[in-house]
Amino acid sequence: MQRFANWELIARWANPTLLSLSIAIALATGFLLSQVDSTALNREWFSARNVDVTAPAWLRGGILLGTVQLPYARLFIIVLTIICTIGVYWFLNKSLWGLRIRAVTQNREMSACLGIPTERVDALTFALGSGLAGIAGCAVTLLGSVGPNLGSSYIVDAFMVVVVGGVGKLVGSIVAALVIGSFSYLIGSGTFLMVFGDVPAMASFFEFFATTSMAKVMVFAAIVAFLQFKPAGMFPQKGRTIDA
User: Fold this and answer.
1) Of all helices (H) and strands (E), which one includes residue 65?
2) Per the domain annotation, does 42 fall within a domain?
3) What is the C-alpha separation between 34 and 27, in angstroms, rounded?
């Protein structure tokens, strides 16, 4: 007769044993590191310090257009963004796997019934998103220092772009990014203040929001008001609902 392990007894003693071993290993490692006089072992590998990334020589400088200088680094980021956008659009609309991704997004159960490998589609979608995030991370290093809080200043804007443009719509994300970015700049730079300077009520209103942080607050309030009328975004999904 085959004998089975007593899993209840093992589970009763496993957690205390593993916890004791973990504490012992941590104490022993800390004691050994404190006794070893080596900067390679004792120095801080992870910290909140920002690290500057030096751009290549061909990305330094800029193009002078009158009184405005366009840096090469920002022009490179714009070109890189356009290339990635065109590539993603072609992949999602002209390739077989792009068709499968759109099908799984709209109706996962029906796609599985039609023979589409949904697990492979999930893996491919995750790989595509991770690759684009890696490209974006490399591009962001050209704009400032790299640190643990680098993405915190972009994640809210990215979320607002997706919500306003419409989930699953690449065109909506592009239009929403242009609208939100332009609107934030016009408010934060005081452009609206100069345009409506002759109207006292409008001038005092835009003067209060004529900073970068307050401009984000106003944009966020405008987005909340916009979603009350169009909760699905500027370019909602057509046809049946996704849950249907």
Assistant:
1) strand 62-65
2) no
3) 11
Distance of CA 50 to the CA centre of its chain: 19
Tell me whether residue 241 is in a domain.
no
Domain count, the chain: 2
**Closest of 211, 205, 164 to residue 187, by C-alpha:** 211
Instruction: For the chain, give the mean pLDDT.
Output: 80
Residues composing the chain:
244
3-state secondary structure of 169: coil
Asked whether residue 156 falls in the same domain as residue 230, the answer is: yes
pLDDT tens digits, 1-48: 445 556 666 667 777 788 888 888 888 877 776 665 555 555 555 565
- Do 158 and 137 share a structural domain? no
Q: How far apart are CA 83 and CA 75, in angstroms?
A: 12
**DSSP reduced 3-state for 59:** helix
The rounded distance, in Å, linking the Cα atoms of 227 and 212 is 23
Give CA–CA dist 47/79, Å, rounded. 33
Structural domain span for residue 123? 70-148
- What pTM was computed for the model? 0.67
